[in-house]
Amino acid sequence: MNEKPSHDLSPGHINSCQICSAAELIPVISLGHHAPCDSLLWPAQLQQPEKTYPLNLVRCPDCGLVQIDYVVNPEELFFPEYPYRSGITSSLVNNLRSTGPTIMDRYGIATGGLAIDIGSNDGTLLSGFKDAGMRVLGVEPTNIAKIANDNGIETIQEFFGEGMAKSIVSKHGKAKVVTAANMFAHVAKLGSLIRGVEILLDNDGLFVTESHYLADLLDTVQYDSVYHEHLKYYSMRSIIRLFDYYDFTVVDVDRIPNYGGSIRVYAMKGKNQHVNESVSCLLEEETKAGLYDTPVFDRFVQQVRDSKKDLQKLVVDVCAHGGRLVGIGSPGRASTLLSYCNIDPDLMPYIAEQSTSLKLGLFMPGSHIQIVDEVRMLEEQPEYAVMLSWHYWEPIVAKLRVKGLRSKIVLPLPTVRVLEP
């Protein structure tokens, strides 16, 4: 085993690699100073100062990890009233609910065992395990845990760590599988989390993580997915390097469509486990694609700057000619895009969200654009609507067309496109 760096980060500037502690970090792009992307504002808060933090993307030439260089206190990012729910996006729900049966089938996990999801949100992923016959337990630090408990998914409302892991084992026994979907890259105290998972898992148990995949981020110019919750942007090479420091073997990987392109990584407890050829195949693809070479990042930066200019030009031109332009969807990534592109309420008076959203009536951090019920957009029929949830645009647009939306739809990334009604 390699000498283990600390993987527990303190708030503030980071001057070495988050995985291997290499001191030389190469700048990729600076997006400026941003407010935390999910720190939505109530009307009264618009009259108060707003805290922002640097948002710089850097990369490690040693292990290949792409990362941001500033840690915001986790309690500030994942506060009790955190407004994100995974269970209201239909395409995501289907992907999350299928995760449990997929893992069980592939690894022959028998029913009746314990499945734990860390960062379990409203329990959507665990519901798939439960329906397949597993005992389930969620760990979620925000008030969304109450929704999961109300829906019959037992959930502990706290941040996960080694102490909690010991408590869970004493009460529930060892787990057969632990999942961490779309949160593994968010954890500042990652060392504590992985050590806690080591405690939770039975011998040869599985730890399955899902993270936004670096290759997809670069290929589809997803600079909008760079925000303070996302500390790391994993590749196969960097995540293997991470698990090498612990009592795990990365044994398998899937590329999945979640969040605009992610990887589901299977790490089995114990060293020298059998490794599926999917791992070596993806490593080879990364090398062939030049994923660790300067030209890939130079091209990405140029595409980011071009897309920003193209979107700004379209938005300003629409408004200059008396047109109306609004937003559709308010995912965390929308905060980065709006702030980086300098789009404010003068250019985009509101963002439309589905009626079940927890964000209605609030204002986007940074840009201060109000989030309203999509009924308003359907009534007003603005000439243009920018799809801020562009990574899920097809099902969303289809539903809105059925509801009667006649606006031209603007897809901001990977390049600016306008969809006629």
Task: Write structural notes for this entry.
The protein has 421 residues and is an alpha/beta fold. It has two domains: 86-292, Vaccinia Virus protein VP39 (Rossmann fold), CATH 3.40.50.150; 295-419, 3-Layer(aba) Sandwich (Rossmann fold). Helix content is 33%, strand content 23%. It is built from 13 helices and 19 strands. It has helices spanning 74-77, 90-107, 124-131, 144-150, 162-172, 190-200, 214-219, 236-244, 277-288, 294-320, 332-340, 374-380, 393-402; strands at 12-13, 26-34, 53-59, 66-68, 70-71, 114-118, 135-139, 155-156, 175-181, 201-212, 232-233, 248-256, 262-269, 325-328, 350-353, 370-373, 384-387, 408-411, 417-419. The strands form four sheets. The protein has a seven-stranded mixed sheet with strand order 8-7-6-9-10-13-12, with helices on both faces. Strands 16-15-14-17-18-19 form a six-stranded mixed sheet. A four-stranded antiparallel sheet has the order 2-3-4-11. Strand 6, helix 3 and strand 7 (135-139) form a beta-alpha-beta unit. The longest helix has 27 residues, at 294-320. The protein is globular. It starts with 11 loop residues before the first strand and ends with a strand. 48% of the residues are buried.
Explain the layout of strands and helices:
Elements: E1 12-13, E2 26-34, E3 53-59, E4 66-68, E5 70-71, H1 74-77, H2 90-107, E6 114-118, H3 124-131, E7 135-139, H4 144-150, E8 155-156, H5 162-172, E9 175-181, H6 190-200, E10 201-212, H7 214-219, E11 232-233, H8 236-244, E12 248-256, E13 262-269, H9 277-288, H10 294-320, E14 325-328, H11 332-340, E15 350-353, E16 370-373, H12 374-380, E17 384-387, H13 393-402, E18 408-411, E19 417-419
Parallel strand pairs: 6-7, 6-9, 7-8, 9-10, 14-15, 14-17, 15-16, 17-18
Antiparallel strand pairs: 1-5, 2-3, 3-4, 4-11, 10-13, 12-13, 18-19
